[in-house]
Amino acid sequence: MNIAKALGSLAENVIAGFVMLVFAILAFFVTVFVVSTGAGLAGYTPDGNFVVLSATILVASTILAGLMK
After folding, report:
1. Which of 14, 25, 31, 44 could form a disulfide with 55 if both were Cys (CB 3.0 to 4.6 A apart)?
2. Can you tell which superkingdom this protein's organism belongs to (predicted)?
C-alpha cells in the first residue's frame, strides 16, 4: 500500500512539474510579446537579445514569487 501511494505521489509531482513548465513557456512567449510591443509603442527599437533578457527576468521573478508561500 505504501509503494502504491509513493508511486501515485511521484506521478502527481511529475505531471504538476510538466504543467508548470508548459505554463512557464507560455508566460515567456506572452511576456516577449508584451515587452516588444511596449517598446514599439514607446518609440524604441530594442535588439532582440534585450527583449529576451527582459522577458526572462520578468518570468523568472514571477516563478520565484509563485514558489514563495
Report:
1. 31
2. Archaea
Residue length of the chain? 69
What's the pLDDT tens digit per position in 15-48? 988 898 898 889 889 988 998 899 999 998 888 8
Nearest to 59 by CA among 37, 35, 43: 35
Greatest CA separation for the chain: 63
Model pTM? 0.71
For residue 21, what are the CA distances in angstroms to 35, 37, 58, 62?
21, 24, 16, 13
Q: Where are the domains of the chain?
A: 23-69
CA 62 to chain centre: 7
